[in-house]
Amino acid sequence: MKKDILTILDLDRQDIQKLFDRAFELKRRSRQGIFDQPLRGRSLGLLFEKPSTRTRLSFETAVIQLGGTPIFISAKDTQLSRNEPVKDMARVLSRYVDALAVRTFSQQIVEEFAQYADIPVINALTDMYHPCQVLSDLLTVLEYKHRLDGLKVAWVGDGNNVAHSWINASAVLGFELSLACPEGYFPDPAVVRKAMDKGCGKIQITSDPKEAVRNAAVIYTDVWASMGQESEQQARLKIFEPFQVNEALIQNAPDDVIVMHCLPAHRGEEITEAVLEGSHSVVWDQSENKLHMHKAILETLIRPCGQLIAESR
Question: Cα(113)–Cα(212) distance, rounded to whole angstroms?
């Protein structure tokens, strides 16, 4: 049976640990100039309705380094733009490519692709979740902190799709997560309740950034207005100003705290230039690790030599 990654809740702790282990191994081998090609003759469709830099390029490079072929599909250039049903396209693309990464607005769209496709479907970002981003972020945390158990991660900013995936990750892996968001911009309550029901991670929501970062091993931020929210940009600047990740805020965290941002960054808004380019920042390693995690995901989901490495339970 095929396996999809639509949210981090589609994976259990063992699944994620296997992805970590393989991503670290692939990164080590690539640094040595060794590129295995288990996906030779295989292809990845990238159906994108939203613009992308890092997610698109890391997926494309990942499948190439694994010996496969990426096929980029702009949604506006397909019959989806003329109201072809998702279920029809899903079944057709299943005959053409070996896996499909979808970047779109609605979570319902990726779920419908997964329902009707015979191939693995990967959520490459929706308005609700960004699971592959957070899986690669966790890889970076492990690289610097060597563990997740007992760590506290502080999210500072909007309760957006990346925040939702951090909530899911805490629910599966059990680390402490403290989210500091302005009133009215908290994460979706349904996402929080579903995570809380797992009873694994300790998840706190506050409007006090200083409290959130206290004792945190990781401080994470993102843009204040996500794609599709551009009309709210000016209003959000004033509301979110107290949630800027700056040197004053970092002083409330331990000396060895690392600062993360999934990029693109708006310097002087959610994060200062000094912090983004400073000694606490790990954003460039974080960005690189998308490539290695995506390789691990693709190798795991696609059928190399006719066999699944990891099958659905």
Answer: 37
Query: What 3-state class would DSSP assign to 173?
Result: helix
pLDDT tens column, 218-245 = 999 999 988 777 788 889 999 999 999 9
Q: Residue 102 CA to chain centroid, in angstroms?
A: 13
> Does the predicted model carry a pTM greater than 0.90?
yes
Which residue carries 């059928």 as its tokens? Answer: 303
Q: Please, what is the end-to-end C-alpha distance for the chain in angstroms?
A: 8
The residue to which tokens 């349904």 are assigned: 190
**Number of other residues whose CB lies within 10 A of the CB of residue 284:** 11
d(CA 126, CA 104): 5
DSSP 221: E
* Cα angle 157, 159, 161; round to 5: 115
Residues 272, 164: Cα–Cα separation, whole Å = 24
CB 66 within 8 A of CB 299: yes
Question: Where do the domains of the chain lie, and which CATH numbers do they carry?
Answer: 8-129+290-306 (3.40.50.1370), 133-287 (3.40.50.1370)
Distance of CA 71 to CAs 46, 105, 202, 232, Å?
A: 6, 20, 40, 34
Q: How large is the angle between the packed helices 13-31 and 131-145, nearest 10 degrees?
A: 70
Give all strands (DSSP E) within the chain, no chain letters: 43-48, 69-74, 99-103, 121-123, 152-156, 176-180, 202-206, 218-221, 258-261
CA gyration radius for the chain? 19
